[in-house]
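An example makes the point: we let one protein speak, the chain in one-letter code, the fold tokenised, and here it is:
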Amino acid sequence: MSQPMNREQRRMLKKQGQEVTEDGQVIQTKTGGGSGSGSGGRVTNKGGAGDGGGSGKKREAVAVEERTGPVQFSKEVRSELRKVSWPTRTEVINYSIVVLITVVILTLFIGAIDWVFSTLVLELFEPRQ
């Protein structure tokens, strides 16, 4: 038994190109280039015994998107990289300076803690005369 769908779920399925019956069963999957980001891979539509198939067997409709070739992939990557908000030269320099100063300070702090603990451990286990 399927869960009841609300209007928002039905609208979303319709936008994705799927038809839905009143009881929430997906009855048709439209193939072709739909809208979206292209992140979908395989669309599977499974109907139950009451899907109108007649034989009682489960039917499955699978639409598989074709793979993108290397040339198309590199074009899409370049297109997406053009949309990135890149930092200015001065921002990169300022952030790099902040990172270097932070690394130096943390290195000195960890080195000092290491020196203190190693001195304490050596004093603790030093043989007495």
The beta strands are 18-20, 26-29, 42-46, 60-64. The mean pLDDT is 78. The radius of gyration is 31 Å.
